[in-house]
Each structure stands twice: as C-alpha cells, then as structure tokens.
Design a protein that fits this description.
eight-stranded parallel β-barrel, 677 residues, Gfo/Idh/MocA-like_OxRdtase_N, Gfo/Idh/MocA_oxidoreduct, nine-stranded mixed sheet, alpha/beta, 25 strands, TIM barrel protein, 19 helices
C-alpha cells in the first residue's frame, strides 16, 4: 500500500512563501500543496493560478476547519507567529513555523505548553539543518572528532544580496492589500536583524554544540550596517564566538569552524537557493566532503517534517524547545548589548530589547544614589580589562593576541597599539576598521580609547594641536568600537603632563582648562562620543570636588569621569583612605564611566604609583563602592609592565571575589546618607 502524502496548507503568500515554501512543498516527495491562504485576494488568486493547490482560502479559520488538512506552514510576519500558530494547534494541525518561533520568551513558552497539550508536531523553519553538508558535519562531530576545543560561526548578509535575488528569482507578486501590523518592523534594525538573521546563527551554534548557557555581546553600527560579536558559553563547557554582520561589504555567507581532539570541520554556505554549501571534515591528514547535490534545504525540511508526522520518524528539524531556546538567546544577546554584562539565558524574559542611541555612559544626576542591597552588582571577570599599551608589540594582531593570552577580553585602547602615535594627525577609515575587526576577531571589547594631551600647556599652539588630534580620534572612535574617549585636564608643566605645577591652582589655569573642555565638548557632540576625564593631583582638576565643579559648570552629559583612586590620594590620606574614596563616589558616582586599577605607595611626603596588589591602596573600600555603581562599568588594570600583569590581575580578581562573597559592606553603604557634608 502506497503511503499518502502529507496535506499541507501554507498561510501567507508573500516573499518567503513565493521564494521557498510553495515550491518546496510541491517538490517534496511526501507532501502535497493542499491549500493556500492569504488575506489579499489578488495575491491569493495569482498564487492559485501558478501553484494550483486544491483550495485557496482568504479566511484562515476556514482553512483550519478543513478536516482533511494535516499541517500548516506559517509564513507571515514574525509578530503574527504566536497567535496564528496557537490557532492551528487548537484546530489539531501540525505546524512548520518560519523562524523565529515567536518574538518573545513568553510567546514561545505558551506555544510549548500548547504543543505539549495537543500532542502535535511543531517544527521551526531553520532550513540549514537540512543541508547534506551540515548533516554530515554533525555526524562527524558526534562520531569521529572527539571533544570540541574551539567553535566559531558567522552569518554575513550582503549589500549585494537583493541584486542577486532580483536577477535570479521570478518577479515577485505583491499586493497593496497585504495585511501588515501597523508598526514598521524593519525600521528598528537592531531588533529586526537579530530576530530575522541571528535566529539562523544561534540555531547553527545550538545544532552543533547544544544548549547555550550565557552570552556577552557587542553591537556596532556604521550607517545602515550593523554587526554583533557574541561570546557564547555552552553547556558542554566550550566557549564559542558568533558573528552577525547585516549587511556586509562582501558576498553572502553563513559558516562555521569546529576544532576537536581528532579532527576539524569547516563549512560555508552562500544564499541557499543558488549554490551548494561546502563543508569539509578533516581527520588523519585527509579531507572529506559531501557533494550535497540535493541542497534544496526548504524541500528537505518539508520532507523530514512529513516523515515525522506520517511515520513517527525522529524529528530532525528544530523543535518547539529549540525555537524557545533560540529566542531566549536572541533576547539575552540584546540584554548583553545594553548592559555590557554576561547574561544567562535562563534569566531573561520578554522580547528583544533595543539600546537607546549613544547609550554608552550613565546619565548625569548630581550625587550617587544608594543602591538597594539586593541590587548591588558584583564585579565579574568579564568587566576587568587591561590598558592595551601594557603589551608593546610590533603589530596590532600581536598586541591583541597578547591581550587575550593574558586572559582579558576588555581593553582601554591606545592608537600606539595600531602602529600610530598615541595622538595621530590622521586615522584612515581602513585603519579604524582594522582596529575594530582585529579586536572583534580576538573577542576583545574596547571600553575606551586614549586621547590624552596637555589641555593647559603653556603654549596655546600646543593646545590647538592637541584639540585637533582629539577630533581625529573622536571622529573614528565609534568605528573602532567605543564611544568613550579619555583625556586629562592638564598641567602648566611644559615638559611632563603628569607632573604638577604651582600655577595649576590659579584662576587663569582653570579658565584655560574650562575653555579647552568646552571645545572638547563641542567635538564630542559633533562626533557623538563621550569624554572621560580623570581627576589627579598633578592636574588642574585634582580632586573629586574640582571635578564636580567642572561638571556643574559645563552642564553637559558628554563629560564622564574615570575613577583612579591612586591618582587622587595624598600623603595625608595614607592612614585612612575611606573618607577620600567615599567623597569621590558620593560626588561623582553617577558620572563614572570607567575605573582604573593600580596601586600606591606612601613614603613620607612622596607618593609613588605601582601595580595593583603591590602597594597600600584600600581595595576593599574601592571595590565595595565600585560595585555600587548603578550601571555596569569597566575596571581597567594599568600602570604596570607586562611581566607584572598576571599578579595584578590575580589581586584584582581576588578582591572582586570577596565583594561577591559578602554584602556587609553594602549594608553599611546603603544605610548611610547619599550626600556627605
């Protein structure tokens, strides 16, 4: 007896149905295009003429009411997925839902519950799972390669994608009467790109390596181009890097690399309609590659779906659990971008969130607000970074490698690391891209970039040169991966901008500094960046009170504070540093955009700086206060030589670990008045 075909109805006759699902169902060996449904009558009629289903419906409920219909392909706007899938399940129909499964964690959870209650098959349309090369790579990974040591995956949409598609696809049929939600979904690009494109990327990662437990992510934007670099932690202990670029100045490509104990796999795939993917597995000195002559993944996913429904075959496609996990991952990535923190997938809810534009540094209230004890942040290892110039190397690539080998994924950058002067006269767009791409490739985030010059140099011509070079760096900062540009307020010493001078305390010096800062603020506003100034005893702004005065005078949210306790302590503070540190955070806590971590040694009236852990800085108080900041804030180790890095990092990490283990100091802080007199 010949087995019957699965009778499928396709909901939605728009672009993805025309380009993929209608042909896929018609060509599948075990499926029938039984019905189609669309609210636009002209579009529905044209698709009926082309594809000849048995039935064409303008009413979804009528299609679902047909007892002969077995399953539904949902190929409509993402925002309709949950509601329409729920209706199909209630009508007893199996489902193949275009990715993403839905647009929020809660919608996916509700669909999971409905699926379990109905006892039906729900498959998410992650079609790459059905490429023969992907499937052979999965077999090789499970059976031959041994433990995974490293994993990376990418999804690069192309600026030329639609030119290719327009030339190769049939002319699309469109309708003015198509039903769309009121909100223009694609205009919020960060959300649209994550849901539409990163859903493929995360599913590929999960297909090969299993569940993802946590993510960190950086989002960069250049014109209408967006990129995400994602550090993913998997349940099996592997740390992987995922990269999404939409659109890329390159050909379209999805791909992955996996390195294991006994072999490796490299796979790349162009647009799925036109060319086969190329996947090669390497073991014992030999490559093997599946031809994949049947690479129509949309058809193959329909065939697998039908086998599961008709014959009870194991589900090869993404399940409702996979769909939920992917949406959780997308929501977690969006939260990681906004917070700058590692985000666990099991802790997120809601939809993908979108960061406010230029949301890089905290807002500017006048005093530190106490944080409730339960909300005090711990300082995790991912927020502890290093001054990149600590590793002098002949090339940027070697510098980035040294940073990562030292255990850091966060840097305070200096253009000297890219082979230029710290304050160059010119930075090309190519150099900026190289900096960004090199750091991204190594999984390094840029917390800020140095643009330090003597703002009140005795020679006004020197000040003008410094401001001009500041603009050079500021104009490329965002392209390199940061919106925070750091500088100092200067000294009257003509030879050393880190050496104090008797004239720094004069009204004239303050006026010159104020005028220079106003010009710097104008540059920051023009370039859309923030300025980070560091109070230090050798400069005009030599204390927390002076910094507060400057912020109050400038009245701008473009100026933030770099907190380095070693730079504000004087010999009189040696016995008890806590009052000076508390004053700093009371006056400036809500303005701090970065912390520095070095140490200090007092010898009579002499104050000497040294690596963290080798002096007498009260790190317990410093990190207690730092953990109280309302926004996630980088903590950068600096002021040391390369051979001193390991010990300094261990010291800062151990002190931070103590903060994570005790809340007693937090109780004392939040019980005290917010402003001290």
């Amino acid at each position: 007896m010949q087995q019957r075909d699965l009778r499928i109805g396709i909901l939605g006759c728009g672009p993805i149905a025309q380009n993929a699902h209608l042909d896929a169902v018609r060509k599948a060996r075990n499926a029938e295009l039984y019905a189609i449904c669309d609210a636009a009558p002209d579009l529905l009629e044209r698709m009926r003429q082309i594809h000849a289903p048995r039935y064409a419906h303008s009413d979804y409920a009528a299609m679902l009411a047909d007892p002969e219909l077995d399953a539904v392909v949902i190929a409509v706007d993402d925002r309709y997925h949950a509601e329409l899938a729920g209706q199909a399940l209630a009508a007893g129909k199996h489902l193949l839902v275009e990715k993403p499964l839905a647009v929020s964690v809660e919608e996916c959870e509700e669909l999971r519950a409905q699926t379990a209650a109905a006892g039906l098959v729900v498959q998410v349309g992650n079609n790459r799972r059905f490429h023969p090369g992907w499937q052979d790579a999965k077999r090789f990974l499970d059976e031959e390669m041994g433990g995974v040591l490293a994993f990376s995956a990418w999804y690069h949409d192309s600026v030329h994608r639609y030119t290719l598609q327009d030339n190769l696809y049939p002319v699309p049929v469109v309708s003015d009467r198509a039903r769309r939600p009121a909100e223009p979904w694609k205009e919020v690009r960060e959300r649209y790109c994550l849901l539409t494109h990163a859903s493929h990327l995360l599913d590929t990662a999960r297909y090969f390596l299993g569940p993802i437990t946590s993510v960190r992510a950086v989002h960069l934007e250049g014109g209408d181009q967006h990129s995400w670099t994602i550090e993913a932690r998997f349940c099996n202990g592997v740390a992987g890097q995922l990269r999404l670029v939409v659109p890329a100045q390159a050909d379209f490509e999805e791909g992955f690399q996996i390195y294991g104990e006994h072999g490796s796999i490299e796979g790349s795939a162009p647009l799925p309609w036109f060319q086969r993917a190329r996947v090669e597995c390497f073991k014992d000195g030999h490559y093997q590659r599946v031809l994949g002559e049947d690479g129509f993944t949309f058809k193959r996913q329909v065939e697998a779906f039908a086998d599961t429904v008709l014959n009870g075959a194991p589900q090869q496609g993404a399940t409702v659990e996979d769909g939920l996990a992917t949406v959780r991952g997308l929501v977690a990535v969006s939260h990681a971008v906004v917070s700058g923190e590692t985000v666990r997938l099991d802790e997120v809810t809601g939809p993908v969130v979108v960061p406010e534009k230029n949301r890089t540094a905290p807002a500017v209230p006048r005093r530190r607000r106490p944080v409730p004890v339960a909300d005090c942040r711990s300082i995790d290892e991912s927020s502890i970074g290093i001054f990149a110039k600590t590793f002098p190397r002949p090339s940027l690539e070697e510098n980035a490698t040294a940073v990562r080998n030292a255990g850091f994924s966060l840097v305070h950058f200096n253009m000297a690391c890219a082979g230029l002067p710290s304050m160059p006269d010119e930075i090309t767009a190519k150099t900026a891209r190289t900096v960004r791409d090199t750091l991204n490739r190594h999984g390094i985030r840029m917390a800020g970039i140095s643009a330090t010059f003597n703002l009140i140099h005795p020679d006004p011509a020197q000040r003008r040169v410094g401001l001009r070079r500041l603009q050079v760096i500021a104009s490329h900062a965002k392209a390199m991966g940061t919106s925070l540009v750091t500088l100092c307020t200067g000294t009257r010493d003509a030879d050393d901008m880190w050496r104090g001078h008797g004239d720094n305390t004069t009204a004239e010096a303050w006026q010159d500094m104020r005028a220079g800062m106003e010009q710097a603020v104008a540059i920051a506003e023009q370039e859309g960046v923030f300025l980070g100034i560091e109070p230090e005893v050798a400069n005009v702004v030599d204390s927390a009170r002076a910094a507060r005065t400057l912020l109050d005078e400038l009245r701008t949210d473009r100026v933030k504070i770099i907190c380095d306790p070693a730079n504000i302590l004087r010999p009189v503070d040696a016995r008890d540093m806590r009052p000076k540190l508390e004053e700093f955070f009371d006056l400036l806590g809500d303005d701090i955009a970065m912390g520095h971590a070095k140490d200090v040694v007092f010898d009579g009236e002499q104050v000497t700086h040294c690596p963290a852990g080798t002096g007498s800085l009260d790190y317990a108080t410093y990190l207690e206060l730092f953990a109280q900041l309302a926004e996630p804030t980088p903590l950068i180790i600096h002021g040391l030589a390369e051979h001193e890095v390991s010990a300094a990092r261990a010291h800062v990490q151990s002190r931070a670990a103590r903060i994570r283990g005790s809340r007693d100091a937090y109780v004392r802080l939040v019980s005290a008045p917010a402003a001290r007199t």
